[in-house]
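By way of example, we now present a protein record of this kind:
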Amino acid sequence: MHAIMMGEYGGPKVMTWTELPDPAPGTGEALVRLGVAGVNYMDTGPGSSVGGGAGRP
């Protein structure tokens, strides 16, 4: 599977497209296939100055 990873604090520039092994569901779990997932403006916020970060109202 593919994932967007943030290996360090920062804005969108630290996001990297990464290939990971396919997950295997455990007992009582389900594996859901996604065709598309979005990255929104606020998804970049907690690790950077973008979006305000933690502790802001």
Notes: The two ends are 35 Å apart (CA to CA). The chain has no helices and two strands. The mean pLDDT is 78. The longest strand covers residues 2-6.
